[in-house]
Design goal:
Blueprint: H1 2-8, E1 14-16, E2 23-25, E3 30-35, E4 41-43, E5 61-63, E6 66-72
Antiparallel strand pairs: 1-2, 3-6, 4-5
Length: 88
Amino acid sequence: MDFAGAIKGEAVEVYPGLETGLPIPVHTENRSSGRAPSRRDVPEGPLGEFPGYYASEAGLPSPVMEVRAVHYRNNPILSSIRRSCSIP
């Protein structure tokens, strides 16, 4: 948050996460929090992408994150999504 504040030229407004107490930026489009159990890996994928295709086959074992909370804003600004994609 210090680095982001330095780029922005002012402090980044945060609030403590309910699950972890770690600072979460207030003005983000979406954020998730949870925990990563130690020494628990599972094969990743295959993952369905939002346009409706699979980008890859199952991959190497990857760490697991147990998501405990998801926060999002209604009508988020998703600048990396092309206009031609339809999102439900």
